[in-house]
Amino acid sequence: MPAKIGFVSDNLRQRRVAAVRACGRILSGERPLTMRERLAGLDGLDGMPDYYGSDGPVAELEARVAGLLGTEAAVFFPTGTMAQQVALRFGGTGAVALHPLGHLEMHERLAYAQLSGLRAVWPTTEPRNPTAAEILALAEPVSTVVVELPMRDAGFVLPTWDALVAVTGAARTRGARVHIDGARLWESTPHLGHGLDAVAGLADSTYVSFYKTLGGLGGAALAGTADLAAYARAWRHRHGGQVFQQWPFALSALAGLDRELPRVPSYVRHAPTVATALAGLPGARVFPAPPHTHQFRLWMPHPADALNDAALRLAESAGICFVGGWRDAEVPGMALAEVTVTAPALDWTADDVADAGSRFLALL
């Protein structure tokens, strides 16, 4: 029976992927690409590959990221989970200030505790990053204060620039380092009103992802001082991240920096138009309103299975990819989806969204 269940699940996933690939209009997300399409779109394939990440496109990528973030150095990692563990280990032992909704708690299997012996202190449980007052009020010393920009599991929310400056200053007052969990830092600068280098300049270490937002095949970078970089290279090896060649990841990340990063501000600007139109659907609610980035949460008063089925049927029958990935929310009777506004959604007007939404709900 377990094998049969998995087979059915795989078939459903393949059906959804096929439906979205055939859609002429996509509101949330991107058209899925095949492996051949992903590689065919990369530049630099005639160059020499990297050798254990010490040269070639990996070294080029590290230099590029350090330049964008205004740091002395940056180190490529195969995963963000690995990069974040090294960043927290560099800060020292003992306690670290984390948010219970942060990525380190929600999506990394508590690696900071299991692998490095660190212990979390929660400055707040509110669905936002901690305030300066909350950091100053911590009951015990912490080696590192982690700030997630944006906080995905709170709804892709960001602090104001002044609040961010204040909380990093409070961390320093407490004698703690500041680490930015910036997997989605690329889209945070419009709301913060400052560039990537200014944001990273507030921290001692900054992690960025290459597959989130930029559309890379995978990988991450940890940026900071030259001392951090030397430490990171040693511990990357110890964590098993000294991969022989990682040029496909590096080339796809460079492509994302060249092609996608310049377009991200336009996605952020268009997100409020999409969010407002979605909020006008019967029983719908969006958060935050307006969105802080090009991603936000959408709630609808219907079962998640019914919404996912309607999304699939709309894609197959009308070639319209509306909003998918629904899951039943904590609020009874409501389902939740994450909406991502990227290039395919830029030509959607508010009327387009409302019309597609009506067609979507009619299929329930």
Secondary-structure map:
Elements: H1 2-22, E1 25-26, H2 35-40, H3 56-69, E2 73-77, H4 80-91, E3 95-97, H5 103-106, H6 111-116, E4 119-121, H7 132-136, E5 144-148, H8 161-173, E6 177-182, H9 189-192, H10 196-200, E7 205-209, E8 220-224, H11 226-238, H12 247-260, H13 264-279, E9 285-287, E10 295-300, H14 304-318, E11 320-321, E12 327-328, E13 335-340, H15 350-362
Parallel strand pairs: 1-11, 3-4, 3-5, 5-6, 6-7
Antiparallel strand pairs: 2-8, 7-8, 9-10, 10-13, 12-13
Cofactor: pyridoxal 5'-phosphate
InterPro entries: ArAA_b-elim_lyase/Thr_aldolase, PyrdxlP-dep_Trfase, PyrdxlP-dep_Trfase_major, PyrdxlP-dep_Trfase_small
Family: Belongs to the threonine aldolase family.
Describe this protein's structure.
The protein has 364 residues and is of the alpha/beta class. It has two domains: 2-36 and 263-362, Aspartate Aminotransferase, domain 1, CATH 3.90.1150; 50-244, Type I PLP-dependent aspartate aminotransferase-like (Major domain) (Aspartate Aminotransferase, domain 2, 3-Layer(aba) Sandwich). The chain is 44% helix and 15% strand. The chain has helices at 2-22, 35-40, 56-69, 80-91, 103-106, 111-116, 132-136, 161-173, 189-192, 196-200, 226-238, 247-260, 264-279, 304-318, 350-362; strands at residues 25-26, 73-77, 95-97, 119-121, 144-148, 177-182, 205-209, 220-224, 285-287, 295-300, 320-321, 327-328, 335-340. It has a seven-stranded mixed β-sheet, with helices on both faces. A four-stranded antiparallel β-sheet has the order 9-10-13-12, with helices on one face. Residues 1-8 have low confidence and may be disordered.
